[in-house]
Task: structure prediction
Amino acid sequence: MVPVRTIFCGAAVVRVIRDQPYARWFPSRRRFALTKILALVFLKTLRSDGAPAPSDAAGGERIVLGLDRDHDSFEIYSAASLHFVVLTCFMASFIPLPPPLSILLAAFFEPLLALLLCFAGALVMSRWAVLRGRSRVSFAPGNSVVLMALAIAASVYLLGYNGWAAPVGGLFLTIVIINAIASLAVRFLQPTIARLEERCVA
Amino acid sequence: MTGSSWRQRFLVRGVFWRQGLRWGILNIPVWLEPAVIAWWSAFFLLWGPGRRGVMSNLSAIKPGSFVVTNFFRCYRVFWNYAWTISDNIRLKELRVIPDWEFEGWEHFQEMQSSAGAILLTAHMGSYDLGAQLFSEMSARDIVMVRAPEIDPQTRAFEEQQSARGVRVELNTQAGALALDLLETVRAGGIIAIQGDRVTPGIGVLQAQLFGKSAPIPAGPFALAMSGRVPIYPIFVVRTGRSRYRLITRPPIEVVRTRDRDQDFARAAEKWTVELEDLIRRSWFQWFQFEPFSVELRS
Result:
């Protein structure tokens, strides 16, 4: 059970944890507050039963887990699916075709539109950065905020649009609101989370 | 830049797609990636030779399967490939390390403590991610032997992006390289070679893979015999998003007797048994885009 801070690739410091399966459930390996809370519940349940870590029980399966906030597949796939569904419905509502066809057409073009928005976002942000005398390579965080804001705006539109797509908008907005409440809880629980994670690797 | 080299950028092995992927990793939110990768994986199904290559390989791996089924399996191969190369760029550009699990840890440790070894692997999971991991976990010199990119611009791009802490040698000058590698392995270094595909101009051994005659590179076996070092079959398998399993199998000893051809044939057979077993289990990430056997080409 050795936590390590290691120099990886001879360049930047990358935080990894070795041979600690509980670390899979670290809230710090998640991006969204809602999944952070879920992970915390799992971690607390696993720790409270007093059972040894699965690697101990299995005779020492070796694992190396990265510690950054984009490691939860469930979270990433769920966010991608929700965003895809909301924007597809939004686009479909503008296509003058009956729903199955308009949805199919919108679903085909949605990833391209998202890509185009990322491109435009990166272009604008890079120009802005140049004007302010800063040099940045990655604009993913900025694009993340813009695309999520667009999805919220689209879901508000869908909710007001009295058609088949209204429940989709409602669902997305509900999840966004629950996530906002969860983010307040995470802020409040941050010391507990940090303590629990430290105890796990101690 | 001439007109033809400009056009070459956009061919399937051109540099445009590599640069596009790098741009995507740096600018697309991570939670948007599944949708984007799903779309691009479908787009690359338009790449006829690659799609047909994968589908013909699948027809040998899964005999009796329907063409339609293999078409969807081919999509799964492209999907896994897209994720693998994305993880590779993410590690290099953003220093995001995927999760690793190890199978056959005892063999892996044995390899690290041995006085020189050949690491024989296949076009599965990520060769580059595996090399990065080795350079981090091993104190030994690691030399990665690989085929060069066909497109010169792509080659230059890849050289710029190659793993730090790992020496990369291209298998274009087989004679001179062999002596250099022999010296490295005798000095206790580890040579990583891909043993499931041959490039023109290198020595081959004829082996059987899924009941078909398949050429495999002779170099690793000759090197193991000359250097008196074991061959460790090692595979990097993607088990999920940003999650990989490093599988190390028991070593293959290339024992020298009076019948050299027979020695090579025995060792090659042991390798193909391991390879076949792994591909059967993880066919969806064997990134072999050309038919592995001449029998399948016809």
Observations:
- The mean pLDDT of chain A is 84.
- Chain A touches chain B through 47 residues (CB under 8 Å).
